[in-house]
Amino acid sequence: MLSLQERLQASNQLLATYAIPHQGILGRAHGEPDDETRFPFQRDRDRLIHTRAFRRLKGKTQVFVAGHGDHVRTRLTHTMEVVQISRDIARTLQLNEDLTECIAIAHDLGHPPFGHAGEEGLDEWMKEFGGRFEHNEQSHRIVTLLESHSSLSSGLNLNQEILEGLLKHTTPYDVPCTGATATGAGSMRSPSLEAQVVNLADEIAYTGHDCEDGIRAGLFTLEEILAVPLAKQAHDLTIERGTSLRGSIINVSVMDLYKATSEELASQRINTLEDVGKAVTPLVHLTHSMRKDLDELRGFLSERMYFCPQVRVKSEDGKALIIALCNGLKSKPSNKVIAIQKKTDSSLEEAIKDFVAGMTDQYAVEQKVSW
Ligand code: MG
Q: Which of 151, 214, 219, 247 is deepest in the core (most CB within 10 A)?
């Protein structure tokens, strides 16, 4: 077996000069001895997979409120699809696949139950107390504070490149966090290419699977969605290959991403990590025409799925339940809330928010029933 240093050197030679090297650059908040068998980002991937927050993603709604069949995406299966797309893109672009995987695994950990409706409910409730709720910040809080890896440091003590990737996670439906944080991970530097890959892989993944889930749920028909140019283009490929619409949407989007990104890296003369950090616009992106087409497809999904009356009614119910749970816990804090407050040295409201945000849909409903 080669030594860690020999393996790091051999693996780094396969990376582009603007990729984050396998040993990382920013390090961990608390230094740790090397693991002779795994690279730093591999260790972080393992820590993330073994968290309770990751396991709970299986019970969290992606778009629908629970109860829509076994094949509709949950946050867990969505996350696995984002991981798969991110890793493929990273490998092809010679970026750090392990780092990309870590950011993708952690990118939705902070999502509360009931999808974006839950997020809205928590944000509204926290605003009463001068706070706010934002799922990217919550993902960061989970891995730096709420989960534990070792009694010697708080949180998972992940490499800072991952924390930076989480805080700079942004898609059309996410709000990037700004400002410095306790870890210094909110700097003005542009996100790593690895983090930028996850941002787009997330959007490509949910656009693809939501088309499939929307048809399955009877919210629209295949014929209806084929009126949208990108869906039509993907469907033509589907017929040619005999594969799924979801797979074809991913394929055409990712192929376009390779084209646009390669041209961008060349035209901006990106050769080093320093060049990436100084870039003022995203380097990983789609061509202008694909961006327009994807936005149009997302517009269709917004109207026919995310904000259709059927989903909206359930979302409103979920939001109301979240607010009721928070109010109930404020007047009578449970032992779990008090334990979180102690562990994180936070206000009662912040601990309630952490507890409720961590719930699965089912657990939240059961809490309501048990009152
Ligand atoms: Mg996501």
A: 214
Mean pLDDT computed over 163-184 = 62
3-state secondary structure 80-107: HHHHHHHHHHHHHCCCCHHHHHHHHHHC
DSSP string, 98-160: HHHHHHHHHTTTT--TTHHHHHHHHHHHHHTTT----HHHHHHHIIIIIS-S-TTSSTT--BH
Contact 42/23 with Cβ under 8 angstroms? Answer: no
Read off the pLDDT of residues 244-294 as tens digits, 9 standing for 90 and up. Answer: 999 999 999 999 999 999 999 999 999 999 999 999 999 999 999 999 999
Every domain of the chain and the residues it spans: 40-369
Q: Which long-range contacts (CB under 8 A, 24 or more apart) does 155-158 make?
A: 156/44, 156/47, 156/48, 156/51, 157/28, 157/29, 157/30, 157/32, 158/28, 158/44, 158/47, 158/48, 158/102
Query: Strand, coil or helix: what is 174?
Result: coil
**207: CA distance to ligand 1 center in Å?**
10
Cα–ligand 1 centroid distance for 217 (angstroms): 20
Ligand 1 mean position to 238 CA, how many Å? 25
| Rounded distance between C-alpha atoms, residue 357 and residue 371, angstroms | 19
More confident residue, 154 or 349: 349
Alpha-carbon 327 to chain mean position: 28
CA of 74 to the centre of ligand 1 (A): 10
Length of the chain, in residues? 371
Q: What is the CATH number of domain 40-369?
A: 1.10.3210.10
Is 192's pLDDT higher than 50? yes
Q: How far is the CA of 140 from the centre of ligand 1 (A)?
A: 14
